[in-house]
Amino acid sequence: MPAQDNFLIKVEGLVKSYGATSVLKGVGFSVARGEVHALLGGNGAGKSTMIRIITGAVHHDGGSISFRDADGQVRSEAEGRKGVTVVHQELALLPHLTVAENIVLPRYASGMSLFDRKRAFDQAFDALSIIDSDFARQSLHRLVGSLSLHEGQMVEIARALSSGAELILLDEPTANLTAAETERLFTVLRRLTRENGLSVVFVSHRMKEIRQIANVCTIIRDGRTVVDRQPIETLSDADIVEKMGQLSASLPVETVAKPRKRDGESLTIREEGLEMTLSPGTILGVAGAPAGPHTLIAALVGAARAKRWTVSMTGWPERFSSPRQAAHLGAGFITGDRWNKGVLHSLPIIDNVLASRRVVRGTRFAGTAERIECFDLLQALKVKAASLWDLPNTLSGGTQQKLLLARWLGVPSRLLVLEEPTRGVDIGTKKEIYQLIRDMAASGTIILWWSTENAELMEICDRVLAFDTEGRCAGIIDHDELSEDRLAELTGMAA
Ligand SMILES: Nc1ncnc2c1ncn2[C@@H]1O[C@H](COP(=O)(O)OP(=O)(O)OP(=O)(O)O)[C@@H](O)[C@H]1O
Ligand SMILES: [Mg+2]
Fold this sequence. Notes:
Layout: E1 7-18, E2 21-32, E3 36-40, H1 47-55, E4 62-68, E5 74-75, H2 77-82, E6 84-87, H3 99-104, H4 117-129, H5 133-139, H6 149-161, E7 167-171, H7 179-196, E8 199-203, H8 207-213, E9 216-221, E10 224-231, H9 237-243, E11 267-271, E12 274-278, E13 283-287, H10 291-301, E14 310-312, H11 323-328, E15 331-334, H12 338-342, H13 349-361, H14 368-380, H15 397-408, E16 415-419, H16 427-442, E17 446-450, H17 454-460, E18 463-467, E19 473-478, H18 484-491
Parallel strand pairs: 3-8, 3-9, 6-7, 7-8, 13-17, 13-18, 15-16, 16-17
Antiparallel strand pairs: 1-2, 1-4, 4-5, 9-10, 11-12, 11-14, 18-19
Helix pairs in contact: 4-5, 4-6, 13-15
The structure holds adenosine-5'-triphosphate and magnesium ion.
Organism: Rhizobium paknamense
GO molecular function: ATP binding
Keywords: ATP-binding, Membrane, Nucleotide-binding, Repeat, Sugar transport, Transport
């Protein structure tokens, strides 16, 4: 049998439409045993759709999928799918069950075996220990609903890694992980591919990670395969961006109404032993494991009562009582928990985009002016939506992220707090978002930007406040002294 035929999975001529929208127009994609295969493409290219079709969650309209066993023999789709597991772009855990139950329940899905509690907990512990034994000890009995986004991501990955699958599809698994966790995940993936012949399909918009972990890549664009199984080292970043159909040059964005230049006032944030004054237009990065940044951010936007932090600015209380009060007083917030706290799933795109404007202005309905405003914002962020009245769930993951960004773009604010604002946004658009945020800063808005992507912090921030793994402030780094090493050192997350 010729080697190139020994694919674990081969997708040919895959076609899929949603109503009048043609999403996949004949995609080809194949995965060999033991490889880490990067599946690349801009927002809305069709990556998640193809993954859903491979797992059987979504039906395709045309084309074929074939699975083969280790001897190259064709298997039925049902048989083949048993060997496939997936970590979806948005988490799919059951919040009212414990971490342990979430990990082991899929193994009992056949309904033929009895639930042996002790054994189940042991299995779940082993699964979690693959990526983090401390986390395994602390979290096994916790309800999934009480986990942070980032802890939930670890549980999903552990579940997939321990499932015994031959093929694991990871749709942006690292979007919520810190650098150290990503490194641990990669170590496990490398071991499983080498020792067990596991195959991995890896979707990410972070070039550095893609290069660290993947051997080959496939790029899809507008529902077609434009690069098929090419060794990743033969393509430069610029090649990849170009193949994805994106111009890397950042375009000036005139369509968004720029906030008026304000005289601006400095903001002081305080914790025991730390005081920082941020002058208007400062972009302050926040780095480190989520514990510390989350406490600071929740305090800043009135999302939680955190006694540690206080702010001072004319006309502001020491602590906001709610995000609504914060919004009224000129402090905007984009949550990092897009799915649970960001997107308004039952409201159309237009309401999603205009939500914070309506809070700030006290308006309720989308008149013509608002429709035009929404349209311009979406254009600035390159969002293609069939209609402003479609639901956000008809948009791709990265595109939903852009809806959240659009909410605060151009809204005159004194402070804008961003949690992973470019999560899942493709490389081409990221640069434009950096520019849009810089424009807001230039008009006097103070920006606070938490990111787990160090490269991003280095590119955009004037200063970075680093937290260690215990959630304590570890130091402040000026732009000129920013480096991956320095960030890793201070955050205690040396890879
Ligand atoms: N349920 C749906 N109804 C209508 N259109 C949909 C639906 N799901 C996806 N689409 C459309 O299919 C296209 C591909 O979306 P998909 O989620 O596969 O993109 P993606 O490559 O995963 O992008 P991202 O990098 O942003 O996650 C998009 O244009 C999206 O709007
Ligand atoms: Mg996707």
